[in-house]
């Protein structure tokens, strides 16, 4: 495809550029759940939904849901979509591509006069990254009927609870249980996402079909020692929480590098009192582990937490371990994989099968219905970074694949 032919791709990238403007100041895009930026971008998405022939409505969990007339009437419905929120200083495409692209596909079908014989909804989930409240998949767990009400008590850095933020945003925490969908009325959930890895670029393919989503767990580790004057307290016998945490971070890196099919990161670290001349009294850090194999992940976790306990004891530090999140790996449905492959082939796009090393809303939606995912090539495999990028050609190709997929769904209705 020549660049000038990629009309849908250029229009889609313009949509995504506009969405990227709704961000906190700074590099890249920072858009948090139930924030002013979230509220502003929903106005933009409402417009996209209406262009696609869908009626938008904000649900009790902060998800913007666009429904076609058949879906609104309760007919069996295919759900497509992704999340609007980002990591701090993220990119324009992680999440938002999966909201905008199916809307562009539906808009193009509508312009061609093609009506689908089943219900369609496109959802813009509010919270997948967990950046603000450290509690992820709120919107998708609500639809699946698996949201733990306790998670609504999570607080942000300012002490605002998730429940409070939802109420201020226009949601209704008390009404979330009623959002649970009837599995008999849901045909499946399909998400489009940038690959966040280098495989498609290495193979020179615009799209790929995902076979499974990785399992993820997160822990909050808190070490408590004793503050003291950095100049007058002797080195021997110090209970320096930061030194202990540093030893744990190094050990985590060593174990992760030595274990096949296990990746992880210490992504956040807080030091108190965080003063230049005071021995650190308390350190809290996060540990995230990911693996497609739950036994590998469990073994890595047990090894690391046991080592952390030993380091704390050796250095006279109190240790508190809290698991804050867990989601097991899930498989994409065979029929969805095959349908996306067939749609890719119909569009002249090679689409090899890939495993996703990232977590997505599909982890929650799998409890409700069959899931599928289409990957789109991203430059240098880069994600969670201001330099995230896709081409108009690839955006166009992926949009046309989803158009073909939607039309091919006629056979399952």
A few lines on this structure:
The chain has 413 residues and is of the alpha/beta class. It has 12 helices and 14 strands.
Overall 3D geometry? elongated
Tally the helices: what do you get?
12
Pairing-aware structural class of the strands and helices?
alpha/beta
Amount of beta strand: 15-25%
| Beta strand count | 14
CATH superfamily of the largest domain: Zn peptidases
Looking at the structure, the CATH topology of the largest domain is Aminopeptidase
The CATH class name of the largest domain reads Alpha Beta
- Under the CATH scheme, the architecture of the largest domain is 3-Layer(aba) Sandwich
Q: What low-confidence regions span 5 or more consecutive residues with pLDDT below 50?
A: none
Radius of gyration: 23 Å
Instruction: Summarize the biggest pleated sheet.
Output: 9 strands, mixed
How would you spell out the order of helices and strands? HHEEHEHEHHEHEEHEEEHEEHEHEH
Question: What is the count of distinct domains?
Answer: 2
* Amino-to-carboxy terminus distance: 32 Å
Q: Helical residue percent?
A: 25-40%
Task: Give the integer mean of the pLDDT values.
Answer: 95
Note the topology:
Blueprint: H1 7-20, H2 36-51, E1 55-58, E2 64-67, H3 69-72, E3 77-83, H4 96-111, E4 119-125, H5 138-144, H6 162-169, E5 186-194, H7 199-203, E6 207-213, E7 215-224, H8 241-258, E8 263-265, E9 269-272, E10 282-291, H9 294-314, E11 318-327, E12 330-331, H10 334-346, E13 353-356, H11 362-365, E14 371-376, H12 392-408
Parallel strand pairs: 3-4, 3-5, 5-14, 6-13
Antiparallel strand pairs: 1-2, 2-4, 6-12, 6-14, 7-10, 7-11, 8-10, 9-10
Helix pairs in contact: 1-4, 1-12, 2-4, 4-12, 8-9, 10-12
């Amino acid at each position: 495809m020549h660049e000038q032919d990629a009309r849908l791709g250029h229009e889609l990238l313009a949509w995504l550029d506009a969405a990227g403007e709704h961000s906190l100041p700074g590099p890249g895009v920072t858009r948090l759940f139930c924030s002013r930026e979230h509220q502003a971008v929903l106005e933009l998405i409402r417009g996209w939904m209406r262009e696609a022939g869908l009626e938008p409505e904000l649900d009790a969990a902060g998800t913007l849901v666009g429904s076609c007339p058949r879906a609104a009437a309760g007919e069996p419905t295919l759900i497509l979509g992704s999340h609007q929120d980002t990591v701090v200083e993220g990119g324009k495409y992680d999440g938002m591509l999966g909201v905008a692209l199916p809307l562009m596909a539906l808009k193009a079908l509508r312009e061609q006069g093609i009506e689908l014989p089943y219900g369609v909804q496109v959802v813009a989930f509010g919270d997948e990254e967990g950046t603000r409240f450290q509690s992820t998949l709120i919107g998708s767990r609500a639809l699946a009927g698996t949201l733990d009400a306790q998670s609504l008590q999570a607080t942000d850095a300012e002490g605002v609870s998730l429940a409070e933020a939802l109420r201020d945003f226009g949601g209704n925490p008390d009404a979330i249980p009623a959002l649970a969908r009837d599995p008999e009325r849901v045909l499946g959930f399909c998400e489009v996402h940038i690959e966040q890895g280098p495989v498609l670029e290495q193979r020179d393919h615009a799209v790929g079909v995902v076979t499974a989503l990785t399992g993820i767990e997160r822990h909050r580790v808190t070490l408590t020692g004793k503050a003291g004057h950095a100049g007058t307290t002797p080195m021997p016998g110090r209970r320096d929480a930061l030194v202990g945490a540093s030893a744990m971070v190094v050990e985590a890196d060593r174990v992760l590098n030595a274990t096949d099919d296990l990746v992880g990161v210490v992504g956040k670290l807080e030091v108190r009192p965080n003063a230049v001349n005071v021995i650190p009294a308390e350190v809290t850090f996060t540990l995230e582990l990911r693996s497609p194999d739950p036994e590998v992940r469990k073994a890595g976790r047990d090894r690391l937490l046991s080592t952390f306990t030993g380091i704390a004891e050796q250095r006279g530090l109190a240790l508190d371990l809290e698991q804050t999140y867990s989601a097991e790996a899930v498989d994409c449905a065979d029929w969805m994989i095959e349908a996306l492959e067939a749609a890719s082939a119909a569009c002249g796009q090679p689409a090899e099968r890939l495993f996703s090393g990232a977590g997505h809303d599909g982890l929650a939606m799998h409890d409700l219905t069959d899931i599928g995912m289409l990957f789109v090539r991203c430059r240098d495999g880069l994600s969670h970074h201001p330099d995230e990028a896709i081409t108009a050609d690839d955006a166009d190709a992926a949009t046309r694949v989803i158009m073909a997929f939607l039309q091919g769904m006629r056979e399952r209705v």
